[in-house]
């Protein structure tokens, strides 16, 4: 799945929140990621992804994408603009 | 209670963690604060503080103090040094 | 300085922000703390506190207190309520 | 670019950090995002992406992907596992 497909996929799967609520939700997910990292809960073969670093890292990715959707931001376009800016600076 | 008393009070009440685990714990508490802010769960008269902005804000304060303890940092001394630095700059 | 004195001290020293801006400011300070922890910039004798773990940890404390002020929350009262709740649970 | 291509793209473009340093870097980027959101600095036509919500949101995405790389986690696989878990629960 491309980043753009992920943005529409997530806006289809989830109730959209406002900008502020989306940022707060991102911080909730980062907090849950911090906990499973601290407890070192990792995904084991044939076991549920629930409550693992793997789950929470994807949840943080998902909330970043949902925040981009709330701001109507195209992350693929941002990647290209940022890398063009970096490449010019590093020439 | 002074900030210094709070630092020894918390080190007496809680199992000390290492620097890295203390920072991760701070992020957990910030995540829980973000959730109760998003859900606007506030303390009501004669009700438990559990699961409210009031509880989670104190928990963030507590984890900041525990992180200072992990780094052996005196927050009262930092306050004075920072304000001396600011006052000189704003003269 | 007590926690209550710190709350009025900071509201006297700094322009008050709204609830949302105060939470965003807390996250800015946590980000700056993460950077100096990652770079391990620590306070050295007779040197400025600027850009050190000591400075940024106090800045996080300050922004937690400013957020409490924005919500009109008495952190000393929250400490007592939370500890009474904990002590009852651990009896 | 797919999520998997983004993971290898970023590991090719950037010096890999350890797990702990990658989490701290994520928090730095979240802090910078909080600042530009608070200041409402948005990308304007024909202007640099530098110091905008657009730039910092992509930087947070990039640091989430770099953190996944540090943990050797395949985010596309996590997406599928999480959605299978959710779909079973919501049946």
Itemize the secondary structure elements and their pairings.
4 copies of one chain form a homotetramer.
Chain A: H1 3-13, H2 19-38, H3 53-70, H4 75-90
Gist?
The structure is a homotetramer of 91-residue chains. By secondary structure, chain A is an all-alpha fold.
Classify the secondary structure makeup of chain A into a structural class. Answer: mainly alpha
Query: How would you sum up the major sheet of chain A?
Result: none
CATH topology of chain A: Helix Hairpins
Number of helical runs of chain A? Answer: 4
**What is the highest CATH level, the class of chain A?**
Mainly Alpha
The separation of the N and C termini of chain A measures 32 Å
Rg of chain A to the nearest angstrom? 16 Å
CATH architecture of chain A: Orthogonal Bundle
Largest interface: A-D, 39 and 39 residues
Report helical residue fraction of chain A.
Answer: over 70%
User: What is the N-to-C succession of helices and strands of chain A?
Assistant: HHHH
Strand content of chain A: under 5%
Regions of chain A with pLDDT < 50 over 5+ consecutive residues?
Answer: none
- Which oligomeric form is depicted? homotetramer
Q: How many domains make up the coordinates of chain A? A: 1
> How does the overall form of chain A come out from the CA principal axes?
globular
How would you state the average pLDDT of chain A, rounded?
Answer: 96
| Strand elements of chain A, count | 0
- Tell me the CATH superfamily of chain A: MazG-like
């Amino acid at each position: 799945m491309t980043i753009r497909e992920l943005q529409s996929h997530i806006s289809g799967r989830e109730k959209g929140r406002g900008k502020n609520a989306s940022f707060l939700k991102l911080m909730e997910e980062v907090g849950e990621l911090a906990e499973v990292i601290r407890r070192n809960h990792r995904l084991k073969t044939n076991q549920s992804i629930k409550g693992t670093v793997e789950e929470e890292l994807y949840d943080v990715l998902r909330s970043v994408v949902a925040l981009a959707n709330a701001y109507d931001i195209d992350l693929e376009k941002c990647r290209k603009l940022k890398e063009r800016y970096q490449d010019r600076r590093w020439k």
